[in-house]
Amino acid sequence: MELCNPYHEDRNVSQDERDFNPSSVTFEWLRQAESASLYGGSEDYTRPVLHHVRSWGREVVREKPFSVIHEFDAWRKNPELAEAVAAIKALTAVIKRSGASTMMGLEVELKEASDALKAWDESSISLSAGCDLFMRYVTRTSAIEYEDIEAGKARLIERGEKFGDISQKARRTIAELGKDFIVNGTTVLTHGYSRVVIALLKLAASEGKDFNVVCTEGRPDNTGAEMAKELVPAGIPVTLVLDAGVAYMMETIDMVLVGADGVVESGGIINMLGTYQTALIARSLKKPVYVAAESYKFARLFPLDQRDMSPAPRHVDFLVPLPQTVRVENSARDYTPPQYLTLLFTDLGILTPSAVSDELIQLYL
């Protein structure tokens, strides 16, 4: 599939053409982040967070120490926010609360906060990628050279907030791009719980399309069952199947649609354990495999095989007691190489796996 170059300044593509051309790439995410202007308000973003306590009958105002981890955790509790977006919000708060007297000092402060967030969960690909992209687009600007710390800080806050807002809208953009691939009579197989996949399926259903969804169970944490519960209120017929029943069901499936924990440089994806075998079975029966993933999940990783990834173990319960000599393989995810994927629905546009490396270069350079 030939893709439109999002960096070509002479593009003259109408909105209608963009809506109906699935191969066009919209790069609003980068364009808006790069075009943010100086913050025009007078609000003081350097104020400490205060809280009121009572001491011997008197109300005393004390400064509450700011923690980027606590801020991130507070945003993360919002079920509609992905981890990467929560990290973007938390890092923007670091700028607002910073007491740095120079832009260089603020950049160091942000780097330390970003490193702390990535260390909080070293296995999270989207969290790490979100922090890296935030640092790339927010701090690598002319604001770093500002002599006026307040003006420079306002510039970074503007960019951080715009970056967060655009990232939040990514799910809707992907749903709009991917819904046209679902037609009446389609049976879709999903694996794992994905908010962006849910958004895409719900949007297609809201337009009156008649289709069915088959969800894998998602052992051991029942992600597929949670997925099914989300889809039923939207009027979507859902079938739940055991993870081991993917091959059994595949001949009745028209397309596979999954999310991703991370999209890597090869164009492959890292996702919930079982995604790889699902894609293998789909490929053998000539069924398309589509991936819905936000661009803040694009990571500078190049796994060579299933073991060439950071460990991500999860607890597994069994109904029967096992001898201590039995080793349990409890990896939470696997790597699906690009040759088993058909297309990726992203907020940058609809991409072939081979186009991902080009997008990563543009994102991180």
UniProtKB/TrEMBL annotation:
<dbReference type="GO" id="GO:0003743">
    <property type="term" value="F:translation initiation factor activity"/>
</dbReference>
<keyword id="KW-0648">Protein biosynthesis</keyword>
<keyword id="KW-0963">Cytoplasm</keyword>
<dbReference type="InterPro" id="IPR037171">
    <property type="entry name" value="NagB/RpiA_transferase-like"/>
</dbReference>
<dbReference type="InterPro" id="IPR042528">
    <property type="entry name" value="elF-2B_alpha_N"/>
</dbReference>
<dbReference type="InterPro" id="IPR000649">
    <property type="entry name" value="IF-2B-related"/>
</dbReference>
<dbReference type="Pfam" id="PF01008">
    <property type="entry name" value="IF-2B"/>
</dbReference>
<dbReference type="GO" id="GO:0005829">
    <property type="term" value="C:cytosol"/>
</dbReference>
<comment type="subunit">
    <text>Component of the translation initiation factor 2B (eIF2B) complex which is a heterodecamer of two sets of five different subunits: alpha, beta, gamma, delta and epsilon. Subunits alpha, beta and delta comprise a regulatory subcomplex and subunits epsilon and gamma comprise a catalytic subcomplex. Within the complex, the hexameric regulatory complex resides at the center, with the two heterodimeric catalytic subcomplexes bound on opposite sides.</text>
</comment>
<dbReference type="InterPro" id="IPR042529">
    <property type="entry name" value="IF_2B-like_C"/>
</dbReference>
<comment type="similarity">
    <text>Belongs to the eIF-2B alpha/beta/delta subunits family.</text>
</comment>
<dbReference type="InterPro" id="IPR051501">
    <property type="entry name" value="eIF2B_alpha/beta/delta"/>
</dbReference>
<protein>
    <recommendedName>
        <fullName>Translation initiation factor eIF2B subunit alpha</fullName>
    </recommendedName>
</protein>
<keyword id="KW-0396">Initiation factor</keyword>
